[in-house]
Amino acid sequence: MDVISVIRTKRDRGELSDEQIDWVIDAYTRGAVADEQMSALAMAILLNGMNRREIARWTAAMIASGERMDFSSLARPTADKHSTGGVGDKITLPLAPLVAACGAAVPQLSGRGLGHTGGTLDKLESIPGWRALLSNEEMLHVLDTTGAVICAAGDGLAPADKKLYALRDVTGTVEAIPLIASSIMSKKIAEGTGSLVLDVKCGTGAFMKNIEDARELAATMVGLGTDSGVRTVALLTDMSTPLGLTAGNALEVRESVEVLAGGGPADVVELTLALAREMLDAAGLKDADPARALADGSAMDVWRRMIAAQGGDPDAALPVAREQHVVTAPSSGVLTRLDAYDVGIAAWRLGAGRARKEDPVQAGAGVELHAKPGDTVTAGQPLLTLHTDTPDKFDYALKSLTSAYDIAAAGTDFTPNPIVLD
Ligand code: URA
């Protein structure tokens, strides 16, 4: 087998054979196929697509590139959730302990933010002492003793994807449905969860900007999971405006703790409960009542145990950025748009995100929202507060917000998008 014939097959709109796929993934993982060759193949796939058989084989080959985890020793059914990424998407933080409080085991292998989207591990690392890197044994121990664990995927899990994702990120080949679906599902299937709920984001702040693409991505991933014996369902959810009232690491932890304490923004609570019900249903725990577990403090108890088991202090004060800048409403009326992408870029420029994988993030940086689409605002009232340790970043962040919102005349009839689209 040679890599040039594999690239030519896809370049010329052909179907890759099972043998070609197995060979190219294995050879790339071993370093026998060069980055420039794999990026040519990734671009050919982005332009010409893959059929269902090719996507399934590509996913299987990425799983086979590494180890598979095994949770069969646990007494509880396992349930996992994966979000395709967005702005202010802190849902994993309240959701994992909530679903654990209802009787499932929640192994949540999470990632870091890149570009305008936030990452669960960066958020949790703003809690003093908390550790994202656990050995497989530590992960299983936290899961077994607390019911939930949120940590980084080990190097042994789908190493082909680790390499390929980093390559796609710098070659303009992220936004390909076959590559996104196989990337996400290879990690989830290798992780060994019994059931999986996918939160497929749609809107300006998501990879999928329109509902048709989001639906195709969701259907592809559900097919891959189901064919591998993982009970998989997907919700299509809105990402045209940030989730909740914060985008940034410590800011989002604070908001998540508010949700676990029985408060928090309505959209975060609604989506957390919707995903919890799907996870419990998929795990065979239909009778559990997640709303009660939020109200009676049992989800908060699991959160505190889970954070402490990973070295964190759930009572420690969260970092606060050194400087704030308030953006006020330029006119009175109804806020009809507050753009997720623009707010995500602002949070990123303030220091909440990183431009390169190795960059540090600021725990306290980010954007706080004082109004959401549908709210009535008055000229001069605070609309957003920007937080950063590096105030020279304010001007750069403000540039991304110049056309981030629309305010219509008072009395305008406006209904915001529902949070769960389908
Ligand atoms: N998340 C992943 O893990 N992979 C992708 O390709 C896109 C989002």
Automatic annotation (TrEMBL):
The keyword Glycosyltransferase applies. Residues 334-408 form the Pyrimidine nucleoside phosphorylase C-terminal domain. GO terms for molecular function: thymidine phosphorylase activity. The keyword NADP does not apply. It comes from the Bacteria. Its EC number is 2.4.2.4. Gene3D superfamilies: Nucleoside phosphorylase/phosphoribosyltransferase catalytic domain, Pyrimidine nucleoside phosphorylase-like, C-terminal domain, Transferase, Pyrimidine Nucleoside Phosphorylase, Chain C. Keywords: Glycosyltransferase, Transferase. Transmembrane segments: none annotated. Homodimer. Belongs to the thymidine/pyrimidine-nucleoside phosphorylase family. This is Thymidine phosphorylase. The lineage of its organism: Bacteria, Bacillati, Actinomycetota, Actinomycetes, Kitasatosporales.
